[in-house]
Amino acid sequence: xxxxxxxxxxxxxxxxxxxxxxxxxxxxxxxxxxxxxxxxxxxxxxxxxxxxxxxxxxxxxxxxxxxxxxxxxxxxxxxxxxxxxxxxxxxxxxxxxxxxxxxxxxxxxxxxxxxxxxxxxxxxxxxxxxxxxxxxxxxxxxxxxxxx
Length: 148
Prior knowledge:
Layout: E1 12-15, E2 21-24, E3 30-32, H1 48-70, E4 77-87, E5 93-103, H2 108-121, H3 123-128, E6 133-138
Parallel strand pairs: 5-6
Antiparallel strand pairs: 1-2, 2-3, 4-5
Helix pairs in contact: 1-2
């Protein structure tokens, strides 16, 4: 990593694990953390898998925007990232990820191809590569899913 220069750093604090509070230092962002009902929690807060999905989807879409720019494509893009938590015997857990890629005006196959290129440059994809299974899926753009 010697040819990389740090351009940004952030830090987050958690107390109480999955039954606690997490916040980003030097920011107003704070969330109550709870386990989902499927894991025996009350499901009233945000869980780590949701936060991972938010971060990965934003980072991946930023990488996709870079790819679109390099290819001269001016179009809206949307990422739906699904984070799955798997459990094996004992205290052994693993994440899995599905990333749906859609680009306005592009077919599902074209969106998948662009998503695979974004997967090569996305920092989240780089850190997860070889550690968790990531599946890239191309889908048609659906404007009804745009941020509310």
